[in-house]
Structure formats: C-alpha cells, structure tokens
Amino acid sequence: MNGTNHSTRGLRRLTRLGQPLSWRVFLFVLVVAAGALVIAWIDTTIYGRMHQLERDFGAVKTERFYHAVRMRSALRHQNDALLRYHLKGERRDLEQYQAESQDLKKWIAARAMEVSTDEERALLQQLGNAYEVYLRECIPLQKRNKMAYIRTELDEINEKLRQRSEPFLELSERLMQVQRGAFGAFLKQSQLTLDSFQRLTKLSLVLLIALSVLLVVVVYRGMIKPLRVQLSESQAIIERQEKLAALGGLAAGVAHEIRNPLTAIKFRLFSLRKSLAAQHSENEDATVIADEINRLERIVKDFLQFARPSEPELVNLPVARVIQEVRDLLKSQLEKSAIELNVEAADDLWVRADAQQLKQVLINLIQNAAESIGREGKITLRAVKDRDSLGGVSLSVAVIEVADTGKGIPPDVRKRLFDPFFTTKEGGTGLGLPIAARIVEKLGGELRYETEVEHGTTFKILLPHVGNDES
After folding, report:
1. Is the pTM here over 0.90, yes or no?
2. Which listed residue, 217, 342, 366, 401, has the most CB atoms within 10 A of its CB?
C-alpha cells in the first residue's frame, strides 16, 4: 500500500530508516576502497611510465643522433691527412691516416650494434661496406712517388679522394636525416608521455578531492546526522517516559480518589432510583447520571491501564486460535454495520504473549477500523510469518495485520495518533491506541501502520515467532 508508513517505539512515531548504519558504512568503505584503487592504479601507472622515461633518457646519448656528422668529419680529417702526406712527404701524416682509418672502421661496426631501428642498422652496414670500398680504392693513394708535386697533381689527388668519399658521404647524409627523424619522434613521444602524466596527475587530484568531499558528506549524512536524529529521538523518548512515570504515580492517586466518590454516588443513585417510579421524570435524570458515572469509571479504568499497565502472563499461543476467537466475538457486531470480517492465518504461527492482552489490542484495532469504515466495508484480519527487525535485531516474526477499506488517516491526525488523550471521536478517551501500543511493547513487539487517505489503513502487530510447544 502506498502512503505513510510508521511504527511505534515507546509510544513515539518513528519513520523507518531506509538502510541500517552498517550498510551505509559498508557502502562508504566500498566507495573509498574503489577510489583508493583507482588512485593507486594512477600512481602506479605514473611511476611506471616515469621510470620507463627515465630509462629511455638514460639510454639516449646525444652523440647517437650525430653519428653521420662524426663519420663525415672523421673521413674529411683522414683525407686531409693523406693530402698533407702527398704535399709534405712526412711519414707521420700517413700513419695518422692509417690509424684513423682503423679507428673509424671499428667505430662504424660498434655503432651498428647499438642503434635501435632496423633502418639505422641497415644504413650503418651500408656505410661499413662503403668505407671498405673507400679504403681499398685509396690504397694506391698511400704511395708517394715524387719528392714534390705540382699544384695540378695535388688537385688531381684531392679530386680522387673526393670521388672515393662521395658514396660514403651520401650514405652519411641519409643516416643524418633518419637520425634526425628518430630524435624528433623520441622528443614527441616524450612530450606525449609528459602530457599523459599531467592528465593522470590532475585526475588523481580530482579523485582525491572527490573522495575527501564524499568522506565529509557520507560521514555527516550517513553517520553523524542519523546519530543526531537517533539521539534526539532517544532523548525525547526518555523525557516522555519520565513524564509517563510521573503521570502514572499521579494517576494512581487521582484515580483512586475519584473511584471512591464514584462508588458512593453509584450506591446512592441505585437507592434513589429504586424509590422513584419507573415513569417519573427524575428517573430519567437518574439514568443519565448513571450513564455518565459509567463513562467516568471507564475513563478512570483506561487511564489506570495506560499509566500502570499490568504485567503480561506470557505463554506460547497459536495466533490462528487468538484471531478466530476475536472474529467470533466481533462478527455479529460488525454484521450490523454490513462490515465483512475476513480471517487469514497460518496454523503453524505461534507467539509468546498474553492471550487476553493480545485480544484486547486486536479488538481495539478492529473497532477503530469499523468506525473508519462506517458502513459497508471489509476488514481483513491476517497473520503471516516474516523476517524483520525488532529492537535492532533481525529475527523471525509473526505479523498480525488489521487492514480496512476505510477513509484512511489524515496527515494532521497521524502526527498525534499515539498521543494520550488525543481523539477524533465524540466521547472517546484517546487512550485506545496508546494502550494498544504499550501492550505490544510489553510483549516484546512493535505496532506499525500504513495508511493512505481514501484507501484504508493497515495496522501491523509484529511479535517474535516461537516454536509450537504449549509451555
């Protein structure tokens, strides 16, 4: 049934909480753990990429990208040494040429093993082959046949060196272009990696801030606020119980003081009515007085029962039997108002309760339902087994429902429904529902209700379910 759903604890209306505190704590821990895992993953990713970038930078040697420049410079230096040998005829220039030739040959072979791309490796192998060809072609030029060379002869030797060097220099130029492209790609990839670091760091910071805000919100709304509400409700319940305890002591004294004069008045009235004629007008007044005295006695009785309820005599009871007895008791009375009373109860449903007190509660709820219907309606008295929370503990419960097709309870009445002495009935005491709630509470249960205006009301008595032994 859609509408308002309330329960009573200590005669106080409490809206049932949607989720227990333990579930809120669990969800909060789950969210924090998920956020922490995401942040940890981001940090691990950043650390891994940073470490890889450090290794890449550590492995990068600037001269690697200038191999071609080094080889071109070395080759030209060798050519200059060989040309000086022919010009001056000094042996050390030839030895320098030969030594530098072997060094460059070994250097090219070593660089071919270091490069990271196949294209560079292939070019260096071609350069090594081209250098071998250059050295073989330059062997004749290592012989000096004259004491002195004229300028045209030196120009001819220089031209031969240029021609023999040209294939090697062209390959060096190609290698230079490839290495420049590789260095540019390396710098671009490094920039992309740094940009991703920046994004991941910002994301990690945003997540950290979001988790901090979530922590504040969840701690306040999920823990502090409900605890404050519960504390406020507990304080209100304690204050109410203290007032009721004081009221109970006062009520006992006042009720006894009222009962004694009422008893004397009733006795005198009984004697007076016997002395009056049956048709005498004073006898009619005496009847009215007797009715009002009976009403006063009923109010005093209800007041005493509310203020100082008797302790229940607990025994194991089959709910179906109690419901059937209540039905038999009220069926004829309800039929006069054309109200149908239906019973639905499982045979194996037992509770530990006081039979008379439980009947009193059911009778009160059914009579209230009948008054809400007026005429021509239906009341369903149902008992089912369920699992619910009583006193903060989840357990198997027997749910006894009194559902009617009446007018429902208006919102302004719901706020004071269980307040003592509050009533919307003419001549009512306003103690029926408070007494019912106190009895159910004494039996270790809880009285709840669901209502919707013009769609009826369902009162639910929740009691702990027990085994079907008669002890």
Report:
1. no
2. 366
